[in-house]
Specification:
heterodimer; A: alpha/beta; Rossmann fold; 2 domains; six-stranded mixed β-sheet; four-stranded antiparallel β-sheet; 11 helices; 10 strands; globular; B: mainly alpha; MetI-like fold; flat
Chain lengths: ~270, ~290
């Protein structure tokens, strides 16, 4: 099954990040270089992770890919087209679930479809289909405040899925959850994205998480950020589960290699 | 690949509703008991004050002319109710307060919200708004009475001006409390500014706007009564002012107590509206903190 999910011939990459740089002005008027020329090819239907020290501008990369920020130089192609200032071409899942407290679960899930102008009945039907598929339909009329953190993140994922993007960006979506919930949710989200045939890009500072779920891991440098190294991992694909990937003998090796990559940098900077 | 829905089966739905049933009821009963006991104490306090006051007046320990007495106040209240004067004065005051409050609060909130669209404009007018907010609104009364006359319109205008500024400021500040990632999320769906405004900015500002309403209902009443002191032919403020000049203390007390009643009623109305508008702000939040996966 896993071999069928990974075509050998690489088609057009889902996302092509071509030598993007980004600088900001800080309050004193100094120029701060955040991204120092990043190039990444993310193949279709792969699940890749971006790991790097905190504050290295990982979220800036996402904001550029999502079209929320313009790079200072360079360009981003999604499905072969340059995105420019366009938005709405990728699904975005953030650190916090950002569910709207005044909307029920169903109405939270439909918000993306509302924005896209789908008629009320159609968006409700579509949302209910997804909620049923992932066992959350009994909460459709509940308010977010009555759900646990793990369930709220599931709803956030479904809110992203119903808009049917081909690419989903995940910006540390597990970091606010407790350890057990995180393990279960990593596994679930990975299998959901694989089932739905999506390309997933995960930002995380948790190396174990990155190794256990990813086909490919990009290790970033400290600021100004560039891609330091790329690893082909694929343990989750081989075992069919992120949880089982953690038991693989190579898991530890990957961890040590990637850890030392990050470690050297921290040593160098301090 | 495993069937994803299997991993998503959730067992906690049952335990949640069960636990809600178990502890909501005793909590409500306890709240009822607390309320009843507080009410009983309030009546006792009022009864004691009235008894002491009346006794002190009867025994001539205090001057009845300068302080009035409970029995005289009740008598005056009855005769004013019979003549219809009290009701018509109270109505005039409530009328001006409510109209001024609604007009000023709604208009102010609307302008404050719309300022979200232009950070440039809001930066420019910011000091003006702050300066206006600093002025005690009653200082505008002589001007407003010159422009609008001594009838109800000047009172409405006073209440509107007072509430407009507060509503504008709190609505404007509320739009700046909004989480930037929430806006990013909406943009990632392809939302335009209008959609972000109606779906995010307005609803998430509502709690702030409505808490300004609570301040504003008091401000509106103060402005109307203040305006009535200065120039009017009707209203509770007018009545208190006139009777005070006549040293008719029982009538002044009737006015003051009626104002208390009016203020309490108006405040309660606003609180009820708040509950109706913000149902998600309910106390149900605590029920699910512990739930894991």
């Amino acid at each position: 099954m896993s071999s069928a999910a990974y075509p050998v011939t690489i088609e057009k990459p889902a996302i092509q990040v071509q030598d993007i740089t980004k600088s900001f002005m800080n309050a004193e008027g100094d120029e701060i270089h955040v991204l120092a020329g990043i190039t990444m090819d993310i193949p279709q239907k792969e699940f890749v992770s971006i790991v790097g020290p905190s504050g290295c501008g990982k979220s800036t990369i996402f904001n550029i890919v999502a079209g929320l920020l313009e790079p200072t130089t360079g360009k981003v192609l999604v499905g072969g087209d340059e995105i420019g200032r366009k938005t709405g071409h990728v699904g975005y899942m953030m650190q916090r679930d950002l569910l709207l407290p005044w909307r029920t679960i169903l109405d939270n899930v439909t918000i993306g479809l509302e924005v896209k102008g789908l008629p009320r009945n159609e968006r409700r039907d579509l949302a209910m289909t997804y909620l049923e598929r992932y066992g959350l339909d009994s909460f459709a009329k509940a308010y977010p405040s009555t759900l646990s953190g793990g369930m709220r993140q599931r709803v956030a994922l479904i809110r992203t899925l119903v808009t049917q993007p081909d690419i989903i960006l995940l910006d540390e979506p597990f970091s606010a959850l407790d350890y057990q919930t995180r393990l279960v949710l990593e596994d679930e989200i990975l299998s959901i994205l694989k089932n739905e045939g999506k390309t997933g890009v995960l930002i995380t500072h948790d190396i174990e998480e990155a190794i256990s779920v990813s086909d490919r891991v990009f290790v970033m440098s400290k600021r100004p950020t560039y891609v330091k190294k790329t690893y082909q991992v694929g343990l989750a694909a081989e075992h069919g589960s992120a949880m089982k990937a953690r038991t693989d003998a190579r898991f530890k090796q990957f961890f040590e290699t990637i850890w030392s990559e990050l470690d050297i940098q921290m040593g160098r900077s301090s | 690949m495993e069937n994803a829905s299997q991993g998503m089966k959730l067992q906690e739905s049952k335990t949640v509703s069960a636990s809600q049933k178990r502890w909501l009821k005793p909590q409500q009963a306890a709240a009822m008991r607390q309320w009843a006991s507080a009410m009983a104490w309030r009546f006792i306090i009022i009864a004691v004050i009235i008894a002491v006051w009346e006794t002190a007046v009867r025994m001539e320990l205090v001057n009845a002319f300068l302080l009035g007495s409970p029995s005289a106040i009740v008598q005056t209240a009855f005769s004013m109710l019979q003549s219809g004067q009290l009701v018509s004065d109270a109505f005039a005051t409530v009328n001006a307060t409510v109209i001024g409050f609604v007009a000023g609060s709604l208009l102010g909130s609307l302008v404050g919200l719309l300022l979200w669209f232009s950070s440039k404009l809001s930066r420019i007018i910011d000091p003006f708004v702050v300066a206006l907010n600093g002025v005690p609104k009653i200082a505008l009364a002589p001007m407003i009475i010159i422009w609008f006359g001594s009838g109800i319109f000047s009172k409405i205008a006073l209440a509107s001006v007072a509430t407009f500024i507060v509503a504008l400021l709190s609505a404007y500040q509320a739009t700046h409390q909004i989480d930037q990632s929430q806006i990013h999320l909406m943009k990632s769906f392809g939302a335009n500014r209008g959609q972000i405004f109606t779906k995010i900015i307005v609803p998430s500002s509502l709690p702030w706007i409505i808490s300004a309403f609570r301040i504003n209902i008091g401000l509106a009443l103060v402005s109307v009564v203040g305006g009535e002191f200065i120039s009017s032919n009707k209203g509770l403020g007018h009545m208190i002012f006139v009777e005070g000049n006549l040293f008719n203390l029982p009538a002044v007390w009737v006015g003051v107590f009626t104002l208390m009643l009016v203020a309490t009623c108006l405040y309660t109305c606003v609180s009820i509206i708040e509950k109706k508008l913000l149902p998600w702000n309910d106390s149900t939040q605590a029920s699910n903190k512990s739930a894991g996966v």
